[in-house]
Amino acid sequence: MSTELNGPRRVVARNPRRPARPAQVATSSPRQTQKAATRNRVIEAARELFDTQGYQGTTIREIASHAGVSVGSVFTTFASKGEILSQVMEGRLEGFYAELDRLAPHLRGSTADRLRSIYAIFFAVEAPRTRLFLSHIAAAFDWTLTSTARPYGRNERVRALLLETLVKGREAGDVDPEADLAGIVELLIAVYGWTYHMVVTEGADTQRMTETMDRQIGLIADGFRPR
To answer: With 120 labelled, which of 19, 27, 52, 208 sits at a CA distance of 20 to 30 A?
Structure first.
């Protein structure tokens, strides 16, 4: 026995002479299309300027001029210079994520070895535009950043990958069960950013920075190995 809680159901018969309404297809308005075009032009212009002039050395006005748009158009699309840089870096990271997804399941060796392999990928991806990555790091020290900006150190996907590697290492028995995994992740991120100072002070290349990072990971691993 069934009980109608909302009263009898009404059945509306469709008029057989009335054709069904066609499904509506979402289309972009001219304004949306223009806004997307402006956004792309600003990101491309900013990428070039951050790569040649640095984060501090580039202004919103210069980005607007290089993109061929008004300063007002830039601020209509982005909240700050830091947010523009975040979008520039996010676009570059798509290929990086694809490479990580392809290689991460095949990494072998100790936890330290796997971390070295991960950071070797990081260096290889950033090598073509090291100065742009330096801008990314510099933005992390801009105390005027808006909440929508994602400077170096705030990439949650990278943090999750490092933490997952350490958790697997703990399960395999080569990471101390009492080790502060979140603290180790912070240390790895800090050390990686630190290696880029050698580009500025010594003109170091990717190989030199990778070798330095390998040694630093070894020192960190000495601290998290089981006692």
So the answer is: 52
For 223: left if phi > 0, alpha if psi spans -120 to 50, otherwise beta; the answer is alpha
Token pair of 102 as six digits: 């392809």
DSSP state of 150: -
C-alpha torsion 55→58→63→66, nearest 10: -120
- pTM, 2 dp: 0.78
- Diameter of the chain by CA atoms? 84
Tokens of residue 69, six digits: 């748009």
Contact (Cβ atoms closer than 8 angstroms) between residue 166 and residue 107: no
Per the CB < 8 A criterion, the answer to whether 109 and 70 are in contact is no
